[in-house]
Amino acid sequence: MQDWDSPIDSGVVPEDGSIFDVIVVGGGPGGSATAAYMAMDGAKVLLLEKAVYPRDKTCGDAVGGKSLKHVEELGVKTALEQTNHFRVDGIIFGAPNGKEVRISLPEDEVENREAGYSLPRKQFDTVLFSNANEKVLKAGGAVIQNFAVKEVHIEGGVVTGISGLHEKNSYHFKAPLTIGAGGYNCPVARAVVDHHDEPMVDKKHYCAAYREYWTGVEGCEDWQGAIEIHFIDGVVPGYFWIFPVGNGVVNVGIGMVIAEMDKRKTKLRGLQDWVINEDPKFSKRFANAKMVEKSGKGWQLPFGSPRKKAPSFQPRRAAMAGAMCVGDAASLVDPFTGEGIGNALLSAKLASTVYDREKHSEGFSSDSASEYQNMLWGELSVELTNSYKLQRLVKKKSLMNFFIGKAVKKVELQRALTDMIASKEAQGQFHSKWWMIKTLLF
Q1: Which of 78, 318, 329, 345 could bond 180 through an S-S bridge, CB–CB 3.0 to 4.6 Å?
Q2: β-pair type (249-257, 290-291)
């Protein structure tokens, strides 16, 4: 059983000036998966992580079925299942008028442990990082924790490596390819967009989020059940979530697009306090609950929704000669659910598919960078575009009340929602006017 407090030994720090096949900046799920995939293909990888594992990561903690397919491919699904976790078998959606509908995930996926989990990121990320650490070292690469990247080097329009600090010592490492996996404020992503004079942050497509851990929340005592997303009057266009992570502990949070927050001059922590203490429905569920001390943290989610008049690539530029970005660094968070781990792992897989150790030994070209970006959007465009449409739909309280009210009564609509959650491509039917009219009105 994994010890969640013992540090992971990442071996000897390489000499200053060392050259690798690939440098990966960031050891979260996207970075660990990318490093592991590329090491499995024989690449000499340098994996850099600013924290020291095990470490906490602010998140909603839900891990969907898309993620589980990748962790199985990476060889860590068994290890993940051996950790304490909440098994997700459905999602409860709540409307502003208080009505709720429970959408069950496919029974066969739940039975085969492919539907989804909910567990602290400290556990999930540590399992993936430990796996990457082992695979990278075995392939002749190196892993450095507590490393702060200070500069991304660009020479002649090509990313050539990075410089940074580890235990007050300066290091400069080179590689034909550098992967940005450092989250919403990734230094590699910033270097890529800055070099092309394109924006990193678009407040219409960035979400702010705040989460706390609670115990004793009514209805969250078991190890299997539904996670909850509520569109509450007073919180819309944001939403409030309740995600059990097992052992009576619950991840409770609230999120809202930053442009909407600025418009309403909203503070998320205060808004969440209002929901928990004053909302007629939720104040009852939290009456005997207790917040885990010092568990309140905020962060940002870069949505993968399509931009109007994007400068070059959708959802934003995520690669250039010598570099690719994955996960949050590539702005790939689902704009409806806020889930980002699945797309982080998917982008890690795509990046490893585009990268060829022999072909790119002398440099990762701008053509290869474009190939990656086109492949990424080609894979995710339907899903992210439809999720963005759903995000815009839920801003309208009357439509949400009507839609969920119909879903409570109509089995056909519940089944369609199940399909939508299990298979993002199925979201397309929600934007067929005839399907919507037929299902909602007849």
Answers
A1: 329
A2: unpaired
Q: Do 227 and 89 meet the contact criterion of CB atoms below 8 Å apart?
A: no
- Stretches where the chain sits below pLDDT 50 are 423-431, 433-442
At 70 the pLDDT is 87
Strand partners, 169: 166
> What residues are paired with 320 via a beta bridge?
323
Task: Please tell me the distance from the alpha carbon of residue 287 to that of residue 87, in angstroms, as a whole number.
Answer: 25
Q: What's the total number of domains in the chain?
A: 3
pLDDT at 3: 64
Residues 109 and 87: beta-carbon distance below 8 Å: no
**Confidence at residue 427, expressed as pLDDT on a 0 to 100 scale:** 45
293 touches 149 (CB < 8 A): no
Query: What CATH number should be reported for the domain holding residue 91?
Result: 3.30.9.10
Domain with 338, as residue range(s), is: 22-75+121-200+309-389
Beta partners for residue 252, in sequence order: 212, 242
- 63, 73 Cβ separation under 8 angstroms: no
